[in-house]
Amino acid sequence: MPDMPDSDHLLTQVSRDLSHRDAEILLASAWNLSRSQLLARAGEPVPAEVTARFAELCQRRAAGHPVAYLLGQREFWSMTFEVTPAVLVPRPETELLVERVLQRIQTPDARVVDLGTGSGAIAIAMAHERPGWHVVGTDVSEEALAVARRNGDRLAAGRIQWRHGAWYQPLAGQRFHALVSNPPYVAADDPALQDDGVRFEPHLALTPGGDGLGALHTLINGAPGHLEPGGWIALEHGASQGAAARAALVARGFAHVTSHRDLAGHERVTEALWPTP
Known about the structure:
Helix content: 25-40%
Strand order of the largest sheet: 5-4-3-6-7-9-8
Strand content: 15-25%
Number of strands: 9
Structural class: alpha/beta
CATH class of the largest domain: Alpha Beta
Shape: elongated
CATH topology of the largest domain: Rossmann fold
Order of helices and strands: HHHHHEEHEHEHEEHHEHEE
Number of helices: 11
Largest sheet: 7 strands, mixed
Low-confidence stretches: none
Number of domains: 2
CATH superfamily of the largest domain: Vaccinia Virus protein VP39
Mean pLDDT: 94
CATH architecture of the largest domain: 3-Layer(aba) Sandwich
């Protein structure tokens, strides 16, 4: 029987196609270990079935599949979320959106909705931080809502209502203290849609077509019909879309319109107050 390769040898083999970090993560997953456990076993022989699984994962990663899809999970707000190709992979910059809503909404029993919830990460993070809030998550994709429900059952059981429908469609006649969304905002001709990983994410959740502003305008235009006086809207958007978002909010009658920068220095979240009459 041939000798089993050790972990260092396997990681070196794939270094031409993958980053060392990705390779370590994938080998740890194939071996059912944490990264720290993998490092502690450096140089140990790797069982044949683990080697085969690792090779399959590396092949898919080299083809562009996101690591999160290969693992079936991604961390957000210090919680581990299930992710599948039906939902966007949660990104660190979206935590800024959660931070802004938590700071702006002080009502202990606030009604808050996450529009286009995807994996449910934003809705669940808010429910986790504010147990008294009444949180709703909506999505036009039944497949995405199924993922959100599973995450909600595990991380915020019984605390979130999940509703199927496009944007405000499932919220007829209801008003909230905050409307929150990370909508599709990439322009249809943006080369980023073909970037590594991104091209495997759901197209509908990445771009509304055209200049990328369509979903933001829909959310802004419909917001007054679903906000309590003194309520807030908070929207994630592209790095170059802050000015357009602010202009649309001002034109719709919002006040205290402000954009906030992510850790990379890009305008990433714009918030605004619906005035009290």
